[in-house]
Design brief:
mainly alpha; Multidrug-efflux Transporter Regulator, Chain: A, Domain 2; 3-stranded antiparallel β-sheet; 5 helices; 51% helix; extended
Protein backbone atom coordinates (compact mmCIF):
# COMPACT_ATOMS: atom_id res chain seq x y z
CA UNK A 1 0.00 0.00 0.00
CA UNK A 2 1.66 3.26 -1.10
CA UNK A 3 2.27 5.97 1.44
CA UNK A 4 -0.02 8.92 0.92
CA UNK A 5 0.99 12.29 2.32
CA UNK A 6 -1.64 14.42 3.92
CA UNK A 7 -1.98 17.84 2.42
CA UNK A 8 -2.52 20.50 5.01
CA UNK A 9 -3.85 23.84 3.93
CA UNK A 10 -2.16 26.70 5.71
CA UNK A 11 -4.35 29.15 7.55
CA UNK A 12 -1.84 31.90 8.32
CA UNK A 13 1.28 33.44 6.78
CA UNK A 14 3.80 35.85 8.32
CA UNK A 15 4.29 39.33 6.88
CA UNK A 16 7.67 38.26 5.49
CA UNK A 17 6.14 35.30 3.65
CA UNK A 18 3.37 37.49 2.23
CA UNK A 19 5.86 40.16 1.13
CA UNK A 20 8.04 37.57 -0.61
CA UNK A 21 5.04 35.94 -2.29
CA UNK A 22 3.84 39.32 -3.60
CA UNK A 23 7.24 40.77 -4.46
CA UNK A 24 6.89 43.84 -2.22
CA UNK A 25 8.50 45.11 0.98
CA UNK A 26 7.01 44.38 4.40
CA UNK A 27 6.83 48.14 5.01
CA UNK A 28 4.54 48.52 1.98
CA UNK A 29 2.21 45.83 3.36
CA UNK A 30 2.06 47.62 6.73
CA UNK A 31 1.40 50.92 4.92
CA UNK A 32 -1.45 49.44 2.86
CA UNK A 33 -2.83 47.84 6.02
CA UNK A 34 -2.94 51.29 7.66
CA UNK A 35 -4.25 53.14 4.58
CA UNK A 36 -7.01 50.73 3.60
CA UNK A 37 -8.20 49.60 7.03
CA UNK A 38 -9.92 46.49 5.70
CA UNK A 39 -6.86 44.30 6.23
CA UNK A 40 -6.72 43.24 9.86
CA UNK A 41 -4.21 40.44 10.36
CA UNK A 42 -4.29 38.30 13.47
CA UNK A 43 -1.48 38.88 15.97
CA UNK A 44 0.62 36.31 17.75
CA UNK A 45 1.42 36.58 21.45
CA UNK A 46 4.56 38.49 20.46
CA UNK A 47 2.55 40.88 18.28
CA UNK A 48 3.67 39.45 14.93
CA UNK A 49 1.16 39.84 12.11
CA UNK A 50 -0.34 36.65 10.68
CA UNK A 51 -2.31 37.00 7.43
CA UNK A 52 -5.16 34.80 6.21
CA UNK A 53 -5.87 33.91 2.57
CA UNK A 54 -8.56 36.59 2.58
CA UNK A 55 -6.04 39.21 3.76
CA UNK A 56 -3.62 38.14 1.04
CA UNK A 57 -6.35 38.36 -1.62
CA UNK A 58 -7.12 41.92 -0.50
CA UNK A 59 -3.43 42.84 -0.62
CA UNK A 60 -3.13 41.36 -4.11
CA UNK A 61 -6.13 43.39 -5.22
CA UNK A 62 -4.60 46.56 -3.79
CA UNK A 63 -1.33 45.79 -5.57
CA UNK A 64 -3.18 45.20 -8.84
CA UNK A 65 -5.07 48.48 -8.57
CA UNK A 66 -2.20 50.66 -7.35
CA UNK A 67 0.94 49.18 -8.88
CA UNK A 68 -0.33 47.61 -12.09
CA UNK A 69 -3.40 49.66 -13.05
CA UNK A 70 -2.09 53.01 -11.79
CA UNK A 71 -4.88 53.91 -9.35
CA UNK A 72 -4.15 56.43 -6.62
CA UNK A 73 -4.68 55.17 -3.07
CA UNK A 74 -7.94 57.13 -2.91
CA UNK A 75 -9.03 55.75 -6.30
CA UNK A 76 -8.18 52.21 -5.23
CA UNK A 77 -10.19 52.66 -2.00
CA UNK A 78 -13.20 53.85 -4.00
CA UNK A 79 -12.86 51.00 -6.49
CA UNK A 80 -12.73 48.46 -3.68
CA UNK A 81 -15.84 50.00 -2.09
CA UNK A 82 -17.70 49.84 -5.42
CA UNK A 83 -16.69 46.21 -6.01
CA UNK A 84 -15.95 44.76 -2.59
CA UNK A 85 -16.26 41.12 -3.62
CA UNK A 86 -14.13 41.35 -6.76
CA UNK A 87 -11.23 38.95 -6.71
CA UNK A 88 -7.91 38.93 -8.47
CA UNK A 89 -7.92 36.07 -10.92
CA UNK A 90 -4.88 33.87 -10.40
CA UNK A 91 -4.46 33.56 -14.15
CA UNK A 92 -4.57 37.32 -14.77
CA UNK A 93 -0.78 37.80 -14.87
CA UNK A 94 -0.38 34.74 -17.10
CA UNK A 95 -3.03 35.99 -19.51
CA UNK A 96 -1.39 39.41 -19.63
CA UNK A 97 1.99 37.83 -20.46
CA UNK A 98 0.35 35.59 -23.05
CA UNK A 99 -1.32 38.57 -24.75
CA UNK A 100 1.94 40.51 -24.72
CA UNK A 101 3.79 37.57 -26.28
CA UNK A 102 1.14 37.23 -28.99
CA UNK A 103 1.51 40.94 -29.85
CA UNK A 104 5.30 40.62 -30.02
CA UNK A 105 4.99 37.51 -32.19
CA UNK A 106 2.70 39.25 -34.66
CA UNK A 107 5.07 42.25 -34.80
CA UNK A 108 8.03 39.95 -35.47
CA UNK A 109 6.12 38.10 -38.18
CA UNK A 110 5.24 41.41 -39.80
CA UNK A 111 8.93 42.37 -39.83
CA UNK A 112 10.15 39.02 -41.12
CA UNK A 113 11.22 39.04 -44.75
CA UNK A 114 11.10 35.54 -46.17
CA UNK A 115 14.37 34.50 -47.84
CA UNK A 116 12.94 31.28 -49.28
CA UNK A 117 9.44 30.46 -50.42
CA UNK A 118 7.35 29.06 -47.60
CA UNK A 119 6.95 25.30 -47.60
CA UNK A 120 3.45 23.94 -47.53
CA UNK A 121 2.79 21.68 -44.56
CA UNK A 122 0.52 18.78 -45.36
CA UNK A 123 -0.48 15.55 -43.73
CA UNK A 124 0.54 13.43 -46.73
CA UNK A 125 4.32 13.57 -46.33
CA UNK A 126 6.48 10.92 -48.04
CA UNK A 127 7.44 7.97 -45.85
Amino acid sequence: MPYKEKTVERLYWSIGEVAEQMGVNTSLIRYWEKEFGMIRPKRTGRGDRMYTSKDIDLLKRIKLLVKEQGFTLQGAREQMRREPAAEVAPSAPHEEVRQRLLRIRSQLLALAVPTEPALAITDDLPK
